[in-house]
């Protein structure tokens, strides 16, 4: 493993912090979330789903989700409309394989397996990871709807139809009846003192 190549790869990952999830542009969102922002929350959702499902490795699910969009640094973020006209799957797979080539055999083998499990959904962890990826987008859509982007409802509707795990289905059902700002209700502490 050459240290310079690892350093270059880590800098490359920084692109994910600047790369916007461009599908949200179709819903009119002016400043959509980044791919890195999406991946972080998806990894945490994946961990939760794996624990809820009870028969999956939560750390593995989170690891799958941390790397699942890495190839987008090289091939960009394809939305579902453009996916109708061409498949980005092969390009993403090629980019991902090129990226991990310089990370040493142990990481390359493990990450390649994770990428495969996510794409093929051939393990419990792969199924959960895909559900978490989709569920994160549904949560993001709910937040955008509440900010006035009503056409983001399409993401929630599509995700709800696609989910496989019972845990994800329970979560999306509850999410739909919850406002994104409900979490902080009752947590505010007033810091002023009345004079009299």
Task: Give your account of this protein's structure.
- By secondary structure, the chain is mostly helical.
- It has a single domain (3-184), classed as Hypothetical protein af1432 (Orthogonal Bundle), CATH 1.10.3210.10.
- The protein is 63% helix and 0% strand.
- It is globular, with a radius of gyration of 19 Å.
- The N and C termini lie far apart (69 Å).
- The mean pLDDT is 94.
Based on helices, strands and strand pairing, what is the structural class? mainly alpha
* Terminal CA distance: 69 Å
CATH architecture: Orthogonal Bundle
- CATH homology superfamily: Hypothetical protein af1432
Q: In which range does the helix fraction lie? A: 55-70%
Strand content: under 5%
Number of helices: 11
CATH fold node name = Hypothetical protein af1432
Which runs of at least 5 residues are low in confidence (pLDDT < 50)? Answer: none
Mean pLDDT over the residues: 94
What's a quick, concise take on this entry?
The chain has 196 residues and is an all-alpha fold. The protein contains eleven helices and no strands.
What keyword list fits this structure?
11 helices, Hypothetical protein af1432, 196 residues, 63% helix, mainly alpha, single chain
Write the layout of secondary structure elements.
Layout: H1 3-13, H2 23-26, H3 35-53, H4 58-67, H5 72-75, H6 80-83, H7 89-100, H8 105-120, H9 124-146, H10 153-162, H11 166-176
Helix pairs in contact: 3-4, 3-9, 4-8, 4-9, 7-8, 8-9, 9-10, 9-11
């Amino acid at each position: 493993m050459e240290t310079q190549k690892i350093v270059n790869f880590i800098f490359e990952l920084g692109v994910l912090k600047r790369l916007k999830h461009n599908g949200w542009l179709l819903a009119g969102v002016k400043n959509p979330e980044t791919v890195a922002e999406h991946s972080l929350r998806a990894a945490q959702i994946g961990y939760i789903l794996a624990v809820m499902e009870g028969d999956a490795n939560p750390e593995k699910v989170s690891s799958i989700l941390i790397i699942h969009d890495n190839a987008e640094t090289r091939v960009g973020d394809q939305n579902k409309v453009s996916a109708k006209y061409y498949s980005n799957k092969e390009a993403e797979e090629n980019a991902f394989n090129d990226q991990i080539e310089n990370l040493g055999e142990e990481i390359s083998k493990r990450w390649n397996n994770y990428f495969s499990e996510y794409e093929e959904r051939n393990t419990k962890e792969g199924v959960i990871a895909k559900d978490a990826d989709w569920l994160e987008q549904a949560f993001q859509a709910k937040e955008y709807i509440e900010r006035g982007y009503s056409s983001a409802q399409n993401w929630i509707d599509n995700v709800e139809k696609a989910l496989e795990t019972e845990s994800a289905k329970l979560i999306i059902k509850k999410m739909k009846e919850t406002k994104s700002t409900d979490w902080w209700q009752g947590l505010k502490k007033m810091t002023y003192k009345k004079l009299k």
